[in-house]
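call fold target=Glutamate receptor ionotropic, kainate 5-like
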Amino acid sequence: PLLKSPVIQESKNVLLVEESPDPNVADLYTTLPFLNSIKSYIGKWDKKIYSTFATLFPDRFKTFNGEVIHLASDYDDAPFFIDTGNGTLGGMNVEIINSLGSWLNFTYTTIPFAEDYEWGDLENETWSGLLGYIQDGDKNMTANYFTITLERLEYFDISVPYFWEGFGFAIKMPAPLPAWQNMIFPFSWQVWLGVLLSILLSPLAIHAFTLFGEKDSQVSLLDTFIFSLMGFLRQGVPHVSDQPAQMIVIGGWWWYCLLITVSYTSNLIAVLTIPAFPEPLDTVKQLAQSPLRTGMLDYGEFVPVALLESENPSLKSLGQRMDLIGQIPNIEGFGLYLDLMDMLMNGTHSIVETYSYLRLMARSYDTLPGSYYFLKEQIYSGPLAFLFRKHTPWASKFDKGMRRLVEAGLVNKWYNDIMEVERKNVQQKAQVEKITLYHLQGVFMIYLFGMLFSFLIFFFELQRKRKQNENK
């Protein structure tokens, strides 16, 4: 009865010393619960043999001997748990559990979700959801997405970390800028400024060389300006000076015009069919300063409370403007997030969720590619770990195996494989987009303004010619 008591069985190391028939030697025992050996004989005391801790306290859990470990789980936890739909589970953490089960010789059971649809919220020293099952002893452990927090350290045994991740934000992509503005996007504003200055200053240099080479030149500054502008418009010139200095200056100018126009034309073709957007939000601070509210599914995660209690003004502002969406009974997987996705696509909210899950969830909806983006900055990034019932004596056995899997790179490989497969499953086939009138509206606008400007100049020329004839 003593060895079966929870105090003994929850101890990592157990040694029972009994009196033997030989009064000079004691018998040593331990307990191996997974081998159905409550009282397992070690040997007779000999200080030469049992001179180390390892020999005196043998490993009680060298093998789990086919033991069944009961997991408090939630299948809606991609890419860590994925319900494949054919009665089997996939996901990175499922791969970890399978590898550890093969090594330690155990099997496991899972549940699709908690009865209250929560993962774990602490109220009056009692946990709800998945963590409540572990606290009450109904389940042995959980392998879902749980970060290490002070509260969880107090109530549960926690494994070594196996992954590092935080909570990310998805934001609707702002409306694209008008297509006619594509005409200015081939160059940055610095390049446009340089081109404008060259157009204004180069005619002065060319005109100065013209006057220096030909003292009696009748060429006006306006003529030189029109002459230099013809290089940008790829127009032929009727006359070129034969003065060496002018030829060198004009040759350099034409070469410069050629490079600028070719570069502009090449980049213009690339940007005509690609919509341009206003500068997106990049940081949590910028998100907090925007009018967007924040939406999150209410499943007992610590984030809403942490945001409200944060001393960081940006995080506190997000917490004060957070709308929690209740879980929908009998709906599982990404379907739980329909309301949140509607809020996202309406442009009124950003939505927050664990970063990897958010990426996979957003991809699964029938929204136009590029209609949303993810904030580069994450919040509450931290180590992920498995959680066990407090005083689980065999929890440390998982640590050794998990370290090996992490150090061998298998955990990252499983993660990357799942993310890549999911990306391919939802990726739409790329289609060659034809250039339409919508893409070329900037070109036609420039042509229209050019025609109007030409008619205006032509009108003034007619008036000038008429006045000259009247004066004669």
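return ok
Residues 441-471 form the longest helix (31 residues). The CA atoms of residues 44 and 212 lie 115 Å apart.
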